[in-house]
Amino acid sequence: MRIGLDVAQTCVERHGCGWVADKVATAISNACPGDDVILYHQFGDWLNWSTSQGTVIGQANVSAPFMGSSWLDARIAWKRIQEGRSNLPGEPEIVQSFSFQAPIVRNARLVYTEERGGKVKPPGDGLRTCSEAVL
Question: pTM of this prediction?
């Protein structure tokens, strides 16, 4: 499986979501060595001036296509992704957002966190709570 993880909040001073994103990314990459883990250091509207402090996982199954990208390059890439002119790098099957947002990612199922709990948005479907959907 190709699993995309939003680690954008790990690029700045870390608080709750940044630490959770870092720990989940590390745990998934260790627990799933046969799966591809794609770290997104720039995610939706959460774009960083620098990704140098972001989560780095040095394993063969982990890639980070936005690591080292500028704010402007990331803005252009995400505009293309959300307009449907480009897919997310790495072609993930599922993406977990930790940045309290649900950007349009047409080529993957999106799971995102909001203050009231997790939500799932299967392509072409309405929002449902995690307890109502199978990931």
Answer: 0.82
**Greatest Cα-to-Cα distance within the chain, rounded to the nearest angstrom:** 38
- The dihedral built from the CA positions of residue 135, 11, 22 and 74, taken in this order, carries a sign that is positive
What single DSSP character describes residue 88?
P
Domains delineated in the chain: 2-132 (3.40.50)
Q: What is the dihedral of CA 108, 115, 45, 19, to 10 degrees?
A: -90
Q: Residue holding tokens 């500028």?
A: 70
- Amino acid identity of residue 76, one-letter, is I
Q: How far apart are CA 54 and CA 57, in angstroms?
A: 10
**Residues 12-52 pLDDT 10s:** 887 778 888 999 999 999 999 999 999 999 999 999 999 99
Say if residue 60 is exposed, middle or buried (CB neighbours under 10 Å; 0-12, 13-18, 19+). Answer: exposed
